[in-house]
Design goal:
Structural class: alpha/beta
Oligomer: single chain
Largest sheet: 6 strands, parallel
Distance between the termini: 72 Å
Shape: elongated
Number of strands: 14
CATH topology of the largest domain: Rossmann fold
């Protein structure tokens, strides 16, 4: 099939490359001429494992191309995906749909013959109806079917998620649109990927509901971690104990510094605003958003407490800046709030991240960026693991201790065993596990 992908950001580029790999003819469109020229040179603007090779192979095969011109590829397309940004609108938290509606107007004027217009962007309930209205208003003669097909891609595992999805959700109101979308995803039938055909509005809400539920699950285990610290329980044992219940499941039950990224913060807030607009407030999600915002700065207080209550003039080394490993995405990353709070308390910051330092430079000030974890830890009074990159899971603790001023490891991702760290002469603080604070207090008393 001939597919036009409007938007060459994370969702558009991954989706376009994967659809091309299925054998479709895909053109990715973006108004950013510099981005398009870079893509033509196989310079990928984001870090996603395997994406550069996938793009390059499909470009060589002639199935994937890039352009700034919308009219010609849309006019020739069987299916047009809208994969533009829907950031939180400044001031009120609603999703900003201006890019979606602008794309719809351009599609209306360029489409020729029957065309399926698919909203791949994450959009609030009712957006598909408005997209259809915009198209009809711009071109009453347009023969289109407007479809909702939300993405469920995890950054760092997006290609596998697209090719081996848990489910494909398609919100469609007519048989012609349903038949076309069945053909788009026909290659996945071999993997027996379930396709859920539903109404547009249900499809739009499925995306928000899924992200809100997962955000709530993360926030739940983070609150349990706080309780574990107070009563002497181990949050990892609690997590495993409840996660083995098939009704609950083990995923997203890892205590840490809170969720971030391009989806959860934006989508939970947009869902809250939508529910408020319709007079059906979602109290659980409202509370989730509030708790997560507080959680990030609470992690900075944890570092300060572990350091004896005062870090003014001290050096804190931060390992991990991105909101999760295997991405360079800094959007709403916990590290941003943690670093700002530590700087407010008077600390100087050195930091290392395998992929996130370039984007971090645009968001943080007065941070020294290191060549590796050991360079970051040199002369530090505390070392804080914020993002659980694999490269941080097997650090040479002896070497770390030799370069640090004070051997204090604050593990906000619980990737180390406490006894292993203590054996190397460190003070160790983690999240929701017994003995950490007590161990520090005993060490202070001994001194």
């Amino acid at each position: 099939m001939r597919i036009a992908m409007i938007g060459s950001g994370y969702v558009g580029l991954v989706s376009g490359a994967c659809l091309a790999d299925f054998g479709h003819e895909v053109i990715c469109i973006d108004k950013d001429a510099a981005k398009i020229e870079a893509l033509k040179r196989n310079q990928i603007p984001i870090f996603e494992p395997g994406l550069d090779d996938l793009v390059a192979s499909n470009v060589r095969a002639g199935r994937l191309s890039f352009t700034t011109d919308l009219a010609e590829p849309v006019g020739a397309a069987d299916v047009v995906f809208i994969a533009v940004g829907t950031p939180s609108r400044r001031g009120d938290g609603h999703a900003d749909l201006s890019y979606v509606y602008a794309a719809a107007r351009e599609i209306a004027l360029a489409a020729k013959g029957f065309t399926v217009v698919v909203t791949k962007s994450t959009v609030p309930v009712g957006t598909g109806d408005e997209v259809e209205r915009v198209i009809r208003e711009a071109n009453p003669d347009a023969d289109v079917a407007v479809v909702s097909n939300p993405e469920f891609l995890r950054e760092g595992a997006a290609i596998d998620d697209f090719k081996r999805p848990d489910r494909i959700v398609v919100g469609v109101e007519g048989e012609r649109g349903k038949a076309t979308m069945s053909e788009v995803y026909r290659p996945l039938y071999l993997n027996q990927a379930p396709i859920l055909f539903t109404s547009r509005r249900s499809s739009e809400l499925i995306k928000y509901a899924a992200n809100a539920f997962l955000a709530m699950k993360i926030t739940f285990i983070n609150e349990m971690a706080d309780l574990c610290e107070s009563v002497g329980a181990d949050v990892q044992a609690v997590s495993r104990g409840i996660g083995l219940d098939n009704r609950i499941g083990s995923k997203f039950l890892h205590a840490g510094p809170g969720y971030g990224g391009s989806c959860f913060p934006k989508d939970t807030l947009a869902l809250v605003k939508t529910a408020q607009d319709h007079g059906t407030p979602l109290r659980l999600i409202e509370t989730t958003v509030s708790i997560n915002d507080q959680r990030k700065r609470a992690m900075a207080r944890k570092v300060i407490q572990a350091s004896g209550g005062d870090i003014r003039g001290r050096k804190v080394a931060i390992l991990g800046l991105t909101f999760k490993p295997n991405t360079d995405d800094m959007r709403e990353a916990p590290s941003l709030s943690i670093i700002q709070a530590l700087q407010d308390a008077g600390a100087t910051i050195s930091a290392y991240d395998p992929e996130g330092m370039a984007p971090a430079r645009q968001l943080l000030t007065d941070v020294t960026y290191a060549a590796d974890a050991y360079d970051a830890a040199a002369d530090a009074d505390a070392l804080v693991i914020v993002t659980e990159w694999n490269t941080f899971r097997a650090l040479d603790l002896k070497r770390l201790k030799s370069v640090m001023k004070t051997p204090l490891l604050v593990d906000l991702r619980n990737i180390y065993r406490r006894d292993d760290v203590l054996r190397e002469g460190f003070r160790y603080v983690s999240v929701g596990r017994p003995g950490d604070d007590g161990a520090f207090q005993l060490d202070v008393a001994a001194e």
